[in-house]
Amino acid sequence: MQVFPVTLPSGVRYWTVLDESMAMVPAADEYLRHLRFGRDAAELTTRTYASGICLYLRWCQRTGRAWQSAAGFIGLFMTWLQHAPTTATQAEWDPRGSEVRVGPGVEPARGARRVNVVLSAVRGFLLHAASYGEVPQEVLAQLYEVADARDLPIEARGIDARFRLRARHRMREAKPDIDRATNEEIVALFQACRSARDRLIIGLMARVGLRRGQLTGLRREDIHFLPDSTTLGCRVPGSHLHVVRRDNVNGAWSKSRPSRCLPADFLVVQAHDQYVLERAACPQAEDSDFVLVNLFRQPLGAPMPPDAINRLVTDLSRRAGLDRHLHPHMLRHAFGSNLGDAGAALDEIQELMGHASPTSSEPYLHPDAQRLRAAIDRVPSPRLLGEG
Fold first, then answer.
1. Cα–Cα 20 to 30 A to 255, which of 21, 101, 172, 353?
2. pLDDT computed for residue 150 by the predictor
3. Is the peptide bond before 176 cis (omega within 30 degrees of 0)?
């Protein structure tokens, strides 16, 4: 079993699952196509789900179980996920070729978060198959349990709904900390940049909060860095940019479905103005509508792929002499944390970060250690007894 990218004649891509004979697994392919085109999921989402389904089908094959009826053994599948290494690390786990190795001191092959993502993919796959009669309906009772909905907010209960379905199998995940880049690290990255394009990239992540897919999917028509953009057919005041979800040839994809308008400060506008002059010196970039294009490597003028942003941030971290390698999302986390530290309300953070749920924005309301220290220092000290 393996995952495989499929490119349609229109250029749109999704990922599917192949068996040992390099043939598509029909049920898996049908679900992944539904996910991509029926649910408007990103290409990377289909890759993640295809990987999870591939693991499930591989486990069913190696344990002699039919995938249609193996849902009752999901607990065993979870144990296998934790301790069965990937192909890339097989030799590292056991030179004799043993697939599963457990015992004291052996680190899990997959963490709780990864296991839960795989389980989510498997549940969606089996639920879709059940709706088409390929899987018995009894399987759903093995995947979900009925839970009381009265503990949910009123908005989430629905009309006269007292019960809800809850996944039976899920690993407990540790609450993640927001691993943000510090302001000092961001300044160091700026200083390590050797081009206006790279400074613009850092600015758009650290000062606007763009994800790498949104960043590399920007078109020149999305940039409205004017005090008044009415001549462009846009009534949004001030300098701003539009984040639009599109199918891009470079694989860039905006996670947010609805289009959003994000304000930009003078540092980002200044970096963009400098980049426009730098880009004009590359004739191959003239006809490209993408904002960020290759200026220093082949093919010149081609849109930058999302992975190039990771390589850039890693190279800048090394060049700046930082004691750790940053990644693009840490700059976005810095943007959200700075919003919280500046006193932004939860709904403001949610809108600027593009979060679908307020719970995704809540961690950014937690102040950093320096602000907590300053709050304590502002508290007046009581006079000691007997003083004065």
1. 172
2. 55
3. no
